[in-house]
Amino acid sequence: MAEVINMPRLSDTMEEGTVATWLKSVGDKVEEGDILAEIETDKATMEFESFNEGVLLHIGIEEGQTAKVDTLLAIIGEEGEDISGLLNGDASAKEEETSTSDSSDSEETTEAAAEDDAQEESSSDVPEGVIVVTMPRLSDTMEEGTVATWLKSVGDMVEEGDILAEIETDKATMEFESFQSGTLLHIGINEGETAKVDALLAIIGPEGTDVSGVIKSGGATAKPAPKKEEKKEEKKEAPKASKENTTSAPKAAAPAKASTSTAANTSGGRIFASPLAKKIAEEKGISLAQVKGTGENGRIVKSDVENFTPSAGGSVQQFVATGEESFEEVENSQMRKAIARGLGKSKFTAPHYYLNVEFNMENMMSFRKQFNTQPDTKVSFNDMIIKATSIALKQHPQVNSQWFDDKMRLNHHVHIGVAVAVPDGLVVPVVEFANEKSLQQINAEVKTLAGKARDKKLTIPEMEGSTFTISNLGMFGITDFTSIINQPNSAILSVGAIVEKPVVKNGQLAVGHTMKLTLACDHRTVDGATGAQFLQTLKTYIENPVLMLA
């Protein structure tokens, strides 16, 4: 279904925006996170990224045109989708607005006078030099925001461009920068609190200024009267100004905002560069006309500017890349899609935390060597880790638990999922009742399941029911890593390689063998102390493997 994208409010005082550059054209594929356009606000030129995926079906505001916040900016949907209804709706709204503008002039004049009087009366509440910052609208559908983190505290000096806070919108967590300089006098929305767009977020002004009156009024005087008067006056003079007239004024009023933002290259065309690239170029005195962009559609990005060095003659020289770019696209298999869905859900719904340990492997290495002297016996370190883990889990049912929306399940049986890499991705066959099986039985079962996995012959029941998962990359030389929990399980153990290294034994430096393990836990079910106690029990069995035979 097509999504309508409106002109976003990208600063706390933004009333309208000018599209400086479109980075996508009608018909282009748009991915979530792609930069759609650069939009000039009343404060800066900012990148506007897409929160939708699909094809760009319509552009409502062309480059250089200015429009009010919430005006139709673009439509994204499926290729070939009929959007005539959305476009007709927009046209009808504009026609209705035009037809009522004349009749409402007198009403607006009266209302404006009343508002001006009210604002004039309340303006005394705002001391000179004080700026009221309100909750910004950081996405086109944002109605309220949550302050995730304050990066400044009351009393801190704030410079223009400093990041004030990280704000969670309905789409993403975004940095919110200050467009003013001064002292942070008041914070209106604390970390973790949610408030509507335009709610009092902060107050910035000269140090020591009394802002109690502004706080009491809730920042109601944040929008100054002069701006309204200007707009009313402009409307009276030209109530039916053409699109050309309305867009020419902002363009003239926008000085060479930064010479890099409107500079022309040698062919006379516009230079496309990210705001950060422009800022760095300005600081380094680099002319963007000499920079070749490596970003999307030839756009200049941060690294392009940083990879320039002045030549002996003082000009700027670019490092010339050699070689030929090539790629191939492979359709995602159903397995890969399932992995993406499952692990994505786990990573972003389960609050993961990680416990890292390093175990002495000398005894296990000796034990395995002796154990494998038995006829027709050859167990692996992985088999031994599965056995030790299953015994330890039996003693710590909280780690062997599962999380569901309405309940927590403490499992008294131990079914170990063993992650197996296959050409299409990853599967997790299950060794059931692993704590009750011998090392030889675990070895035989794992070999069988792994072989069936590689041959794509695993059945659904053989991959269901795990209560805990082990992922071992030690055979690839990986010493330590973290894994994503295989939901609904509460934990997963990542096993690294056995490494020969200097260790301290009885106060003396000696050569030893150690192995690193990382336990990823779901904090909803497994607290830190619980996970640590489980690892202590696991350490007992791994460093004293003979106990597994008891």
In brief:
With 550 residues, the chain is an alpha+beta fold.
The radius of gyration computed from the alpha-carbon positions, rounded to a whole number of angstroms, is 32 Å
Query: Tell me, what's the shape?
Result: elongated
CATH superfamily of the largest domain: Chloramphenicol acetyltransferase-like domain
What's the mean pLDDT score? 80
Number of domains: 4
Query: Architecture of the largest domain, according to CATH?
Result: 2-Layer Sandwich
Please describe what this structure looks like:
This protein is of the alpha+beta class. The protein has 4 domains: 3-98, OB fold (Dihydrolipoamide Acetyltransferase, E2P) (Beta Barrel); 126-223, RNA polymerase II/Efflux pump adaptor protein, barrel-sandwich hybrid domain (OB fold (Dihydrolipoamide Acetyltransferase, E2P)), CATH 2.40.50; 256-326, E3-binding domain (Dihydrolipoamide Transferase, Irregular); 334-549, Chloramphenicol Acetyltransferase, CATH 3.30.559.10. The protein contains 11 helices and 28 strands. It has helices at residues 84-122, 212-216, 225-237, 243-253, 275-284, 302-306, 334-349, 362-371, 381-395, 439-454, 528-543, and strands at residues 3-6, 16-22, 29-30, 35-40, 45-49, 54-59, 66-68, 72-77, 131-134, 144-150, 157-158, 163-168, 173-177, 182-187, 194-196, 200-205, 308-310, 316-318, 352-360, 401-404, 407-410, 416-418, 420-422, 425-427, 430-431, 468-472, 491-505, 508-522. The strands form 8 sheets. It has a 6-stranded mixed β-sheet. Strands 1-8-6-3 form a 4-stranded antiparallel β-sheet, with no helix packed on it. Residues 97-101, 112-116, 118-124, 221-268 and 312-318 have low confidence and may be disordered.
